[in-house]
Amino acid sequence: MRLFRSSELLGIARETMEFILEACEDTHPNEYMGFLRAEDARTLGLDRSGQVITDILVVPGTESSPVSATVKTNMKPNDLKSVGSVHSHPNGVLRPSDADLDTFGQGEVHLIVGAPYGWGNWKAFDNAGEPTHLDVVDVELPENRFFDFTQEDIDAELERDDGGFFSWLR
């Protein structure tokens, strides 16, 4: 893994955008909010350098209502994979409010998804709240990337008699 990511954001993975649309619809009539994380495009099989949005991070303790979603800032991670935010507007309005603009400072792209949460019901914005283009990219996302262990690792650990890392599960 490189220490600094490429500054070019190539797009968002189709599967990730599908997840966003479903999550926004499932949360309706309340707002949905999450943070966008990206991976190096070369690790996803693309022949270009740059980043592709692949993950949505939902921060524990996020409070949501029909008119806002609030995140405790001390819970928001600050990592190199963070590239922006996503939130829904249950009223369908696809432009940032003044409150949205106050949160757009971190990251390079911010998505707003409006009801009825279809493919034509989202827009991307830069930090200043100006519309920007974001391609939907067809890449295959690796399965179970979040944890760096397999089910076999868990089973082997659970079979150990010395307590081990997963002893709290027993």
Automatic annotation (TrEMBL):
One Pfam annotation reads: Prok-JAB
- Domain named MPN is located at 10-131
Q: What is this protein called?
A: Proteasome protein
GO BP terms in the entry: proteolysis
Which keywords belong to this entry? Hydrolase, Metal-binding, Metalloprotease, Protease, Proteasome, Zinc
Record organism = Salinigranum rubrum
GO CC annotation: proteasome complex
Task: List the Gene Ontology MF annotations in alphabetical order.
Answer: metal ion binding; metallopeptidase activity
Q: Which residues form a coiled coil?
A: none
